[in-house]
Amino acid sequence: MREHWPYALGVVLSYLVAFLLFPAVLGYVEWSAVGSWYPLLLQLADGVGDLSGKLLPIWTPLHPHATITVIGCSRLLFIPVFILGLAFARGAAFFFVLTFLVSLTAWYEAMIFSLACEGLHPDSAYQVESLLAFMVQVGSLSGALLSLLLGLGPWANGAAVEW
Question: Is the separation of the CB atoms in 32 and 162 below 8 Å?
Fold first, then answer.
């Protein structure tokens, strides 16, 4: 089980980023041209990005543990980019593109589940799948709690941006 920690970390980071950014950060972005439709349009960008990412082929990297860890950690870079986008009032297209890219890069979630169970006995695969499913919940809860903290943070009071 010890050799599967990079996969567990990858799953936690993936869901942490998703639940941290949506809706906490994007909840402060408004676009007067589309009014209350903007959050739904961002959800559409999220869904299209996620679907596009999941349709990408799964490949086996030369060093899967390192690759999964690097990809998971690099997704954390989206957090300051979104926050800086809020601070410097980038246009609506900026958040559409970033939302799409965050979701597109979640393609590796499918790769994690595939690689983690590759070549395992069914009983061992079940244990690894259970661990990864638990990590989905850990990442989701961690992201949601951080999202709540960011939503209540001092920078959030004046963060609403409108175009």
Answer: yes
| Boundaries of every domain in the chain | 16-162
The distance from CA 43 to its chain's CA centroid, rounded to whole angstroms, is: 13
User: CA 98, CA 128: separation in Å to the nearest integer?
Assistant: 32
CA distances from 64 to 10, 37, 68, 112, 124 (A): 11, 40, 6, 9, 18
Q: Would you say the pTM of this structure is higher than 0.85?
A: no
Per residue in 90-122, pLDDT tens?
677 888 888 899 888 877 777 788 788 888 888
> Rounded distance, CA 67 to CA 33, Å?
41
- DSSP code per residue over 107-124: GHHHHHHHHHHTT--HHH
As beta bridge partners, residue 161 has: 29
d(CA 55, CA 107): 8
129 near 113, Cβ under 8 Å? yes
